[in-house]
Amino acid sequence: MSWATRILKAGRIVQDSPAMPASTVSPPTGTRASLQIRHVDAGSCNGCELELSGAFSSVYDAEQFGARLVASPRHADALIVTGVVTHNMRTALIDTVAATPEPRLVIAMGDCACNGGLFRGGYGVAGIVEDFVPVDVELRGCPPTPDEIIETLRGVTGR
Amino acid sequence: MKRNHTGAPVASGTATATLGVLGVVVGLRAVFGAPLRASIGWLVPFAGLRVDVDPLGGAFMALTGAVAAAVGVFAIGYARRERWARFPLVALPIFVLTLLVVPAAGSVTTFLFAWEAMALTSLALVLTEHHRAEVRSAGLFYAVLTQIGFVAILVALATLSSAAGSGTLAGIRAAAGDLSPALRSGVFLLTILGFGSKAGLLPLHAWLPRAHPEAPSPVSALMSAAMVNLGIYGIVRIDVQILGGGPRWWGTTLMVVGAASAVFGVLQASVSADLKRLLAYSTTENMGLIGMAIGASMLLGASGLASVAAIALAAALVHLVAHAAFKALGFLAAGSVLAGTGVRDLDRLGGLARRMPYTTTLFGIAALGATGLPLGAGFVGEWLLLQSLIHTPQGDNTLLSLVMPLSIGALALTTGLGIVAMVKAFGIGFLARPRSEGAESAREASPTMLVGMALAAAGCVVVAVAPVALGPVLTRVATTLPSVGDGHGPKLGAMLRLPGAAGSVSPVVLAAALAVSAALVLLLARWGVRARPAAVVRPLWAGGGPALTPRMQYTATSFAEPLQRVFDDVLRPDTDVAVTHVAESRYLIEKITFRTAQADAVEEHLYWPVVRGVAAAARGVRRAHTGSIHLYLLFGAVGLLVAIVVGR
Known about the structure:
The structure holds two protein chains of two kinds. By secondary structure, chain A is α/β, with parallel strands linked by helices.
């Protein structure tokens, strides 16, 4: 049996994905292409970052559901913002959202980003994400697990 | 001293350009018609002026004339804008005249006379802005190195002339076959040294990176695109034509000198931050490549491989023409930048593409030519050289199978680093945002300057796309040279073909393919964006930080830094970092001082020991200068006595 026939016989081998979650928003790209995401750390304790890197690792593989991390807001369709907004990151967050081409989405990830969480009212804290930029999707959890991250992202990408 | 003449720049530029056109006409007539011979007895004392233009000299005359025509037109606008004094305006056409007489010279005395006149007028022109100390230092360097070269040439030609028993070059050529091998080899070594110093070959190259930046740009263009060629002319005339190529070690020596010059020159070019210094080192690089090609031709000729030798020689001549075109354009464009901004330091330039669009385009053509990439002027010559090195049938010849692969390596390294140097010159100097007020307030060159540059650019395009135009001249020149004159040369048609070697390329087809595919991409892009929403203008993305400043850009120094690190042993940069700590803690830093200077390693390790030795000897001699007139009279008497006894 040659390698070509082996490949043909084996076909595509993929793991079954969990059931499709309900769509939270319409995909901002408006096409069938994948969602390009820029991650902004507005003042996180880095717990959310650990889980986010876990979600995009080979174990959970968020990219198979059409979500992808990019290196610049100029390339992005959506932003994932983690952490409370500190004084030092306030302008940078507003600038980053302004630099993302429209139509765009802002996903607030983690309890801190959504409601201030553990750091609410701290001396270095300027506020929560919603105080400065419009938030489209909230992802609760301290920190949210990779499965929860992927579920939320599937709700955005629709895959 | 500086006055604003209105008519004088026009007169000087027109005279220069007219002399150039005359040079082209006379040169081409000599190439295709009968050799021009003339002898004017009264013009030069004792020997008279003897002119004998054969196809070889005619080709160099035509090339010099073409460069002078472009430079002359450019000089009209440049001299007016820079408010030249009367002296350089007068000296410029005289310099062109001496440049034209050198390849026309038919006798040793005429040649040496014209050569020295050329050296002196160019020295005077280098010293145009003599009120600046750097210019005086550059002038001193140039004067010393060019005189060392002249002495070598003088001794070589005088020896040759007396041994052959003839004062004319034709007479020497007829008698050269009977000379002793030792004498021929001595003459060869002296001419490599002497003509090499004019061509900017190692080790007497150090005047180029000093004199070219400090001379006014039209003068730099003439020196770098026309005068250095005459060094190559001397090597071809004396060593290839008159002495007939010689034994194999001649060619090998020239190849080694050429390869060393090429690699060293391009390394220095790629780390230098001064636009004109970069172009000057690029001249050393290209003259090195030409020297390598001539050396390869001599070596192959001596090994009995005439057809490959003809390819190498054609490579040398084509690259010579290409270099003249793109280097004239490069220096003229650098002059336009200098006149428009007052800056020639790449670290302080930038942002010229918007402010000087024509100059930027024209410098781009010159830079593309200097890279040796296809559709650049330098491509055809370097391709021919590479083919001649690759297609050398080595057989069981140890020398060839050792030299040729090493030369291919040197050529490849040179071409690769040449791209780095030119990307730096164009990218840092002309693109991005202005790094200084001078670059910010740049003005486009005046119309005559643009016309002068456009003429040189036309030359670049012809060499790059239609080298077929050079074919007939090359064939005629080859007939005058022994060992390659039997019609074996490469065929420079629409398709470059090499008889006796597998290899062909067509610049015309490449250009057409590029034009068609560029048009296709443009159309597809237009079609692709027709449904997109209109573009919006937003502030530049600065990574979330405050706005970008010009100081955050890449500079020429930072662009070359990795290269400087890799070639640390050759370049030996002089860098110094001084860190000042806060008094309370060594972990906090108050300020950091960084200083870096790029000296010429050959100069440091070869010239300064000699200069120090001469200075020490002079101090010794000075001890005899006591100021006593009696002692001086005694010296005179003893000297006379010795002369009488010896000369008895």
